[in-house]
## 1
Amino acid sequence: MSDQIDAKEKDYLYLAPSQIPNAGQGLFVSIAIYKEEVISLFKGESLSNDEASRRANLREDDYFINCLDGSILDSKHTDCFAKYANDPSAKGGNMVKTKFKSNADISIDDDDNICLIATRNIKIGEEIFTNYGKKYWTNFHRL
């Protein structure tokens, strides 16, 4: 069971350059987050397999999330803080060891929303990191 933060995401989340070199923007918190709190919801367009394949062939699959029902959620053109949580163990699609550690999991909340849930207490100003998983990196630009 996950806990909801009683505030709008824009009031406690912000974007800034990621601490991971060449990773672009990262997701940061301006309040303390507690273990098992929902940090942010993933939002986006639900894609058919054909449309997901088409976008992947065009290398437009940077923000794909594989859903439990087999569909793909694409956050690329949607305002969504969650999509800015970077994978600390991936560098160019290769799994590597870094000094950064995951502090959130991609999960399902009590209302069946895809979200980021804190795996530990997170301090003010920390960047949110989550592991995308081998399937993401295997399929990245290859659907």
## 2
Amino acid sequence: MLQFATTGTSGAIAATLFRQPAHGANVFADAGAAPDPRVQGPFLILSTPFTASGAVDFDALAREACYVDWCGCPGMIWPQSGDSVDLLTTDEKLNGMEVLAKTARKLSTTALCLGVQGRDTAEMLKFAEHVEKLAPPAIISRPPDSGKTEADLRQYYHALAAVTKRPVFIQTTGGVAYKGPIPSVDLLVELAKAFPNFGYVKEEAGNVIARTRALLAAKPPIRRVFSARGGFGWLYELRLGSEGLITERAIYADVLTRIWQLHQSGSDPAALRDAYSKFLLMLNLNRTHPGSDLRGIQLYLWKKRGVFQTMVSRHYGPGGTMPPSPIYSDLALSQEEIAEIEDRFEALKPYQQSGSPSFAAAVQ
């Protein structure tokens, strides 16, 4: 496990901020650089699995990556959802990144995108520099918790651009502690012009449809616009020009990949509507069943499919605070609730991958 050095951090940050990245030496020269062909379609956020004692289950995390690859999904992301960013220790996140990078090298389809979130620029750079050593196909970062102005966001992303040349997604919402502005479309375009590996946007903030239209109109230098928000608006956003989906719905990786393929081919509009409708029926269960929207019933399905061993989650403290030690609980479902999950999940079968996934690549 890599341990972060703390001495000399401020000097290292200053050097990064004032160092002109090699790929940006001629600013705006690569504004029309083509998007990476690997970065499109569903890039699904992996749910963090936990043991019965509330520890991160790294073996199950590796199996989750194998499952997503077996589904034929173009991409996977971790850590990205709030609980996986805020409620895991630095060592847990570093270890999980290493496990996924090692597993991903043995997979056939799915590209790994690692999340380099930071409460501030210093913390983000620690993760980013570690991730560079793991060399995933892409990275993603939300605005820093400490950001208060658009100038803060500009500085943060310029610092990130100085340490990586791989495609960088910008998530347009911050974490629970973020009180700063939504990154403006103008700022996203500015960054895409300045750095040919920027211009990949996970759009989920403010007036999403208006912002999506504006970003699509700015291609190039904007390279890819991805939908989010749990997938609730994805079909409409695909028709507007969205080129992918980023959300913590990896248990439906096969179904979402099929929706993407049906949209791309245009071969069967009725099947596209049917698949998406049945996907939404699953999401609707989060309105009636216990658990959070992004984990909730999905934990039951992860266990059903042999990927997770438990339905345990960690939780924030009162008012969305970070607890001094992990708060965790196991999801409890009644037989009636399970029966409803099973009934709706059965309807997805025509769009699911047949057979069972191999977890051979998960062996560390």
